[in-house]
Amino acid sequence: MKAAKRLFCFGLGYSAEALIRRLTRAKSKGWTIAGTCREDKHRAQFAKRGIKAYRFDTGRPLEDAGKILAETTHLLISIPPGDEGDGAADPVLRHHLEHLLATRNTIKWIGYLSSTSVYGDAQGRPVDEDWPCRPTSTRSRRRIEAESAWLALARAPAPLPVHAFRLAGIYGPGRSELDRVRAGTAKRIDRPRHRFARIHVDDIAGVLMASIAKPRPGAVYNVCDDEPAPPAAVAEEACRLLGLAPPPLQNLDQAFATMSQMARNFWRDDRFMLNVRIKSELRAKLAYPNYRAGLKAILKAGG
Predict the structure, then answer these.
(1) Domain total of the chain
(2) Are the beta carbons of 172 and 14 closer than 8 angstroms?
(3) In a domain, 276, yes or no
(4) How far is CA 19 from the centre of its chain?
């Protein structure tokens, strides 16, 4: 008889949904899945799919968390850090560390979804997992504080099997440059040497599956595709696929005038992300190794 497999997701969001789809395919049946969301209407939608969803947010912890988390074998955390400083910035650890420690006898894998923004500005140089983290924004500093707090649990006297996944810019069905072009919000910024990393949401799920199959507590992985590229090139490809004229080319100063502060921070950091470790260690195979393959697949599927 196979051992029970129970995934609990703090944050039943876009990336978690991609992993759930993988786990519920024919060859991966046997999983029980539960998690958290903030709105009652979403809880009802998950219930129709056999996924028990509990209410949780930064100011509202789980009710009866010990019972809810009992017998969890796999845990995914995709909730971003809150506004507080230090490691307590992570709302899950702030509210439920004691309950997580109580799962030591059953937990086999914990995945924390972090961000490549923790590296800060590398001035265009190649960045692997050994590159020092020097975040340049408050949001990114809170992210590395939360990530570090999770990874510290893998080094504790009674460790938990924590893994950190530093995700590049996520795209996929419903969240791609194709949607921005259709909505008329796509931009072409004239900065061809400034290349950004991205990752298709289904490839995030593939990397997580590979890690679940081959856990190494304390490990950190860059999760990005093989071809960091200028956003202008991505916009041009999306327009080509849709048969539309690309938006006018802007310089960065022009674009900054209408950008949010978060978007400006995004452009101020320049790094060339490397994904060697997910391949050499996890043997992960990317279904969409570059933005061209990803956008083509989204459009073909009707997205």
Answers:
(1) 1
(2) yes
(3) yes
(4) 11
Say whether pTM exceeds 0.85.
Answer: yes
pLDDT in tens, 236-290: 999 999 999 999 998 888 887 787 877 787 788 999 999 999 999 999 999 999 9
Q: What is the rounded distance in angstroms from the CA atom of residue 76 to the CA atom of residue 80?
A: 12
DSSP state at residue 119: G
* Domain region containing 93: 5-172+198-226+271-287
66: left (phi over 0), alpha (psi -120 to 50) or beta: alpha
For residue 253, report the phi and psi dihedrals to the nearest 5 degrees. -60, -40
CA–CA distance, 254 with 219 (Å, rounded to integer): 41
Residue 235's contacts (CB-CB under 8 Å, 6 or more residues apart) are 177, 180, 181, 186, 187, 188, 246, 247
How far apart (Å, rounded) are the C-alpha atoms in residues 302 and 300? Answer: 5
pLDDT digits (tens, 9 = 90+) for 139-192: 999 999 999 999 999 998 989 999 999 999 999 999 999 999 999 999 999 988
Question: Which ranges of the chain would DSSP assign to H, the alpha helix?
Answer: 14-23, 40-48, 65-69, 91-101, 138-154, 177-183, 201-213, 231-242, 252-256, 261-268, 276-280, 291-300
- In angstroms, how far is the first alpha carbon of the chain from the final one? 41
Q: In this structure, what CATH number is given to the domain that contains residue 216?
A: 3.40.50.720
Q: Which of 285, 168, 129, 281 is nearest to 215 (CA)?
A: 281
| Interstrand relation of 162-167 and 220-223 (parallel, antiparallel or unpaired) | parallel
Q: Is the dihedral of CA 123, 126, 128, 131 positive or negative?
A: negative
Q: What angle do CA 201, 74, 69 make, to 5 degrees?
A: 120
Task: State the DSSP code for 120.
Answer: B
Contact 155, 218 (CB under 8 A): yes
**Is residue 139 domain-resident?**
yes
Query: How far, in Å, are 117, 185, 194, 209, 266 from residue 232 at the CA level?
Result: 20, 13, 10, 32, 14
For the record, the structure tokens of 227 come out as: 């071809």
